[in-house]
């Protein structure tokens, strides 16, 4: 994992809030105000999804506000919010919400960061009494936590287990990266997870002190977005939150200083997988945007980010000596702006990797971007804004909530997308190569940056020194670099001649899914389905049985890479660059996928670009292209990636566990460098792709659009109907080697103090149809996970979380697998596994004990289906999967609530007994290497 991605993972403990976004619709419906006690409130009615509302309690406080004796208590307090409030003593709050269909972690969640804490709810909103009670819960969190001493003591072990579960083999590198970002500020001394001594021993009064000091209205906001009566909700907020007394404490700002000089650090860790150089620049945050003038700077930064992504993407196809590189800008903790230059070093060419990287950055700093690059990203930027401004598609309440987050934490007011589009059009000509170069030069200063070099012991001796790296960057800046230029052939049309349209040979109404199915004369089935809501977009997905399992074993590796290589090669007479340039500013896109059991496509476009979408499908289908240079580069990168990735003990453990579960064969084996070298073949790549697609008969396409739209019908008949026909062999050649006897697999190679446990149960006996099995599996695993969480976490305090998951597939032969996973102290492994087995036995022998949990699960299943039915993507996926699994009636969804209602405690107990307890157990444990005898 590159450190640039790690920035976002370490920002908070919990869910990560999305990045800055302008308003999706008019802000006139937003009600925003401030109560006398200082609390800010936001209320925004929104009818999508129907019957649901999203709630937030925002606080501008986190671990930074902790005293020395309180390290970790901001996060501890977040845990306690679910363990007793004024109106919901004990665990009754979670029980109440689960009864309403809320699922912990998805509909009910929270996160704590350095300078923010956010509580999150997502619940049905048709019943005003539930909306009122939800506001009561938020008000309790804001000012009514009980913080009972017994509950505090009980939660200590849970939080310690969370701390343990987050330990990783590359912790030293991750900590070094965070310390570089924090640059000696208070952030470095206030890790959100805290100090284990404080977590385990701090008096409960310290928690109460933090709560009384910092959960005050002056640093809070409550936000509600959804299918609600906005005026009524506003009144209830004033009533419930206005009672909270004014806080006495004033928030202090703890800035992160910019770098004043170069700093260099090298960290070597056994847990690292690659060698990386990260160059970090700390910058001041840009100002919030309130008007057309301020928008220019924001737009310029947006264009610059797009240009950087495009430049480094284009460079990746020029056979660089390094393995991977990027330069990007992002916000960090709403406190700083970062410029991060990330280089994944090729261990075979470490010096030249860094030298070329330094040259490419210096090239950017000296010349910026050429007019073609700028014109391309401007065109894309404009098209995206125009499509958003003109779109009829509804915006989800969750997306609108992100805008309110920006308003409260970033002081970025909600701005309608139509205003943004107008501002863009008025400012775009004022931004040119000179202004963009100047902006990048303000971002990039190699003399005031942090250089972090990381790797693993086997390559440490190969890595360049601090003196060499800093010298190479200085030399690159001083030397006049060549200008960057990329030539391409420009085209006016994707295809020259339209294919001959097919005729419709049969039409059938699929009332269960509100769709029309037609059969075309080339052997293709097309299902037209009306969008759930008004839409100005067309989507096309398609599938056919087949995929990698139909290939000869000698073609398997070529099949794994065929889709990627053909996609990167362009299509027809068009190179990748020419095709991408033609599509710039257009919304049409399509992917061709070769999965293990089927082949398929997925594409979409605005209605205005619908013909381009269908032409693109036809061109890529009928004229796939293999660029020999692209093939060679993909193959070389794949080989280098294997050779240059440190095979950590944890990774080897996972590989060997896979062999134990699935056997060893040409499908399950590790893709080593020698396998790729020997079996990824240029002369087999196009034939494999053609086998997956080529003749189109047997394919089923799902088109989300108006089936009575004559233009759409014409496009389908012409471009889908024009696809070639012919003989197709979709017989699976592969059969699994599933282990059906018990086994124990233990290794003492872990890099951290925790033990990781996997309990896997698998069977080839699936005693019911696939959809019924999946429903029973969803219900049973949810019930079992809830029961295990209560026992292992809430009662025993020995784990932070337990994952129970299950899946089944009929192809190429039946297989069902259930997995139970958790992390814990090594000394607790045996008692926890015994408890899991004991709890399952109790469930089977006393089904009545799960009655309340099952009702919660069934409520959540019904709620999720009600939401799914409002999403076009759900219907497309449901139709594809139903037909693929030969469940052709398509009436499962219409019967779903009835089927859920019929699930009994005996059904769940029977499922757990037959599909888990009576199947072979593969017990796998990864222990710390320090315990190896």
TrEMBL record:
Keywords: Hydrolase, Metal-binding, Metalloprotease, Protease, Signal, Zinc. The keyword Signal applies. Residues 49-184 form the Peptidase M16 N-terminal domain. Residues 204-380, 696-848 form the Peptidase M16 C-terminal domain. GO terms for molecular function: metal ion binding; metalloendopeptidase activity. Its cofactor is Zn(2+). Pfam families: Peptidase_M16, Peptidase_M16_C. Residues 1-21 form the signal peptide. The keyword Protease applies. InterPro entries: Metalloenz_LuxS/M16 (IPR011249), Pept_M16_N (IPR011765), Pept_M16_Zn_BS (IPR001431), Peptidase_M16 (IPR050626), Peptidase_M16_C (IPR007863). GO terms for biological process: proteolysis. It comes from the Bacteria. SUPFAM superfamilies: LuxS/MPP-like metallohydrolase. Belongs to the peptidase M16 family. This is Insulinase family protein. It comes from Sphingobacterium olei.
């Amino acid at each position: 994992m590159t450190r640039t991605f790690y920035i976002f993972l370490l920002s908070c403990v919990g869910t990560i809030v999305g990045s800055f976004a302008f308003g999706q619709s008019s802000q006139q419906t937003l009600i925003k105000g401030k109560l006398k006690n200082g609390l800010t409130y936001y209320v925004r009615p929104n009818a999508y999804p129907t019957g649901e509302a999203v709630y937030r309690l925002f606080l501008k406080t986190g671990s930074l506000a902790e005293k020395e004796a309180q390290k970790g208590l901001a996060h501890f307090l977040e845990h306690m919010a679910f363990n007793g409030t004024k109106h919901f003593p004990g665990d009754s709050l979670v029980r109440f919400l689960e009864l309403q269909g809320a699922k912990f972690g998805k509909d009910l969640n929270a996160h704590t960061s350095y300078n923010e804490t956010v509580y999150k709810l997502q619940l049905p909103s048709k019943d005003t009494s539930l909306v009122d009670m939800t506001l009561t819960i938020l008000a309790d969190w804001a000012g009514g936590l009980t913080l009972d001493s017994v509950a505090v003591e009980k939660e200590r072990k849970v939080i310690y287990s969370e701390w343990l579960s987050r330990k990783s083999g590359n912790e030293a590198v991750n900590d070094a990266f965070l310390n570089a970002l924090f640059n000696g500020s208070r952030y470095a001394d206030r890790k959100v997870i805290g100090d284990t001594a404080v977590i385990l021993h701090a008096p409960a009064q310290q928690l109460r002190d933090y709560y009384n000091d910092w959960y005050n209205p002056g640093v809070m906001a409550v936000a509600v977005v959804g299918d609600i009566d906005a005026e009524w909700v506003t009144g209830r907020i004033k009533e419930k939150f206005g009672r909270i007394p004014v806080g006495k404490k004033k928030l202090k700002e703890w800035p992160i200083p910019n770098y004043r000089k170069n700093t260099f650090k090298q960290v070597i860790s056994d847990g690292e997988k690659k060698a990386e150089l990260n160059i970090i620049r700390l910058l001041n945050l840009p100002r919030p945007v309130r008007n057309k003038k301020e928008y220019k700077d924001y737009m310029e930064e947006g264009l610059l980010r797009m240009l950087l992504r495009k430049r480094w993407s284009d460079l990746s196809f020029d056979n660089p000596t390094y393995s991977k590189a990027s330069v990007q800008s992002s916000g960090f903790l709403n406190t700083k702006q970062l410029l991060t230059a990330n280089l994944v070093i090729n261990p075979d060419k470490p010096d030249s990797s860094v030298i070329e990287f330094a040259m490419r950055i210096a090239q950017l700093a000296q010349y910026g971007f050429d007019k073609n690059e700028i014109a391309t990203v401007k065109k894309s930027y404009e098209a995206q804004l125009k499509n958003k401004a003109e779109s009829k598609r509804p915006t989800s309440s969750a997306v609108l909530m992100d805008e309110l987050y920006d308003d409260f934490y970033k002081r970025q007011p909600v701005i309608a997308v139509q205003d943004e589009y107008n501002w863009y059009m008025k400012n775009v000509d004022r931004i040119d190569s000179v202004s963009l170069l100047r902006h990048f030069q303000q971002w990039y200063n190699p003399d005031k940056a942090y250089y972090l070099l990381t790797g693993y012991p086997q390559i440490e001796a190969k890595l360049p020194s601090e003196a060499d790296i800093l010298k190479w960057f200085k030399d690159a800046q001083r030397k006049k670099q060549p200008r960057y230029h990329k030539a391409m052939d420009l085209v006016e049309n994707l295809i020259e001649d339209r294919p001959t349209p097919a005729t419709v040979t049969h039409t059938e109404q699929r009332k269960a899914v509100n769709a029309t199915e037609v059969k075309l004369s080339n052997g293709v089935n097309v299902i037209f389905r009306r969008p759930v809501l008004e839409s100005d977009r067309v989507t096309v997905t398609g599938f056919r049985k087949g995929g990698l399992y139909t290939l000869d074993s000698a073609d398997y590796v070529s099949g794994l890479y065929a889709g990627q290589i053909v996609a990167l090669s362009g299509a027809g007479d068009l190179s990748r660059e020419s095709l991408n340039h033609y599509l710039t500013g257009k919304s049409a896109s399509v992917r061709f996928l070769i999965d293990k059991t089927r082949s398929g496509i997925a594409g979409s476009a605005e209605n205005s670009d619908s013909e381009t979408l269908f032409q693109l499908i036809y061109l890529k289908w009928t004229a796939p292209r293999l660029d020999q240079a692209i093939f060679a580069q993909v193959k070389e990168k794949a080989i280098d990636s294997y050779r240059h990735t440190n095979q950590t003990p944890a990774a080897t453990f996972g590989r060997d566990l896979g062999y134990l579960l699935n056997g060893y064969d040409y499908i399950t084996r590790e893709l080593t460098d020698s396998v790729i070298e020997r079996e990824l073949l240029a002369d087999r790549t196009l034939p494999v792709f053609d086998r997956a697609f080529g003749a189109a008969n047997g394919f089923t396409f799902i088109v989300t659009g108006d089936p009575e739209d004559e233009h759409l019908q014409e496009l389908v008949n012409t471009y889908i109907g024009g696809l070639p026909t012919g003989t197709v062999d979709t017989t699976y050649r592969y059969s699994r080697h599933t282990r059906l006897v018990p086994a124990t697999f233990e290794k003492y190679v872990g890099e951290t103090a925790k033990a990781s446990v996997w309990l896997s149960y698998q069977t080839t006996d699936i005693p019911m149809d696939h959809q019924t099995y999946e429903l029973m599996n969803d219900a049973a695993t949810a019930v079992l996970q809830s029961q295990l969480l209560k026992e292992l976490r809430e009662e025993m305090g020995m784990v932070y979380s337990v994952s129970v998951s299950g899946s089944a597939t009929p192809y190429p032969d039946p297989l069902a697998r259930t997995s139970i996973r958790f992390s814990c102290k090594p000394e607790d492994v045996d008692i926890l596994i015994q408890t899991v087995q004991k709890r399952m036995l109790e469930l089977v022998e006393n089904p009545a004990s799960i009655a309340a949990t099952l009702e919660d699960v069934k409520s959540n299943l019904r709620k999720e289906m009600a939401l799914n039915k409002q999403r076009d993507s759900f219907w497309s996926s449901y139709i594809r999967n139903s037909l693929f699994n030969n469940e052709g009636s398509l009436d499962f969804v219409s019967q779903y609530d009835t089927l859920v209602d019929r699930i009994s405690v005996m059904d769940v107990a029977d499922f757990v007994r037959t599909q888990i307890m009576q199947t072979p157990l593969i017990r796998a444990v990864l222990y710390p290497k320090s315990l190896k005898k």
